[in-house]
């Protein structure tokens, strides 16, 4: 196992006043921090899954990703503001400090929170659920570490859970 490093979340949530759902990860991975945007690892299936769900082309640039999210009233952020972590391994997270999710919810029309993976779900339940009053749905992680889940299987489960909340 590598060395722990203190990681501070370096970029803003993506949302606007029309956002209806929020997808939360844990904290940006090494690759995401290098790329200065969410789900930056080339093997992470997040953008492929979302593009499939909203029936649009796979966004390539940060601007295209933001446009796709906002057009479909999807907000994206992470549960944690900072933590100690080894590499990108969620299982190594310790000394976590959560983001303040409630103010974001108050600025939007978000009615449902989805978490990208079990660790994000656990942190949301531990730090945010009581304050926000918004139930969350834990979706299978799009991380390359979740290799047991194929892209098709991820799309199927994400679609089943998110379709009632997606806005065309």
Summarize the SSE layout with pairings:
Elements: E1 5-8, E2 21-25, H1 30-35, H2 46-53, H3 62-71, E3 74-78, E4 80-85, E5 94-98, H4 101-106, E6 112-116, H5 118-127, H6 129-132, E7 136-139, H7 151-162
Parallel strand pairs: 2-3, 2-6, 6-7
Antiparallel strand pairs: 1-4, 4-5
Helix pairs in contact: 2-7
What does this structure look like?
The structure is a single chain. The protein has seven helices and seven strands. 33% of the residues lie in helices and 20% in strands. Helix 2 (46-53) packs across helix 7 (151-162). It has 168 residues and is α/β, with parallel strands linked by helices. The strands form two sheets. The chain has a four-stranded parallel sheet with strand order 3-2-6-7, sandwiched between helices. Strands 1-4-5 form a three-stranded antiparallel sheet, covered by helices on one side. A hairpin with an 8-residue loop joins strand 4 (80-85) and strand 5. The model has no long low-confidence stretch (mean pLDDT 95).
Short description:
By secondary structure, this protein is an alpha/beta fold. The protein has seven helices and seven strands.
Q: Please work out how many helical segments DSSP would assign.
A: 7
Which percent range fits the helix content?
25-40%
Main β sheet profile: 4 strands, parallel
Read across the widest sheet, the strand sequence of neighbours is 3-2-6-7
Broad structural category = alpha/beta
Radius of gyration (CA) equals 15 Å
- Helix and strand element order: EEHHHEEEHEHHEH
Tell how many strands the DSSP assignment holds.
7
N-to-C span:
44 Å
Content of β-strand: 15-25%
Oligomer: single chain
Overall geometric form: globular
- Poorly predicted runs: none
Question: How confident overall, as mean pLDDT?
Answer: 95
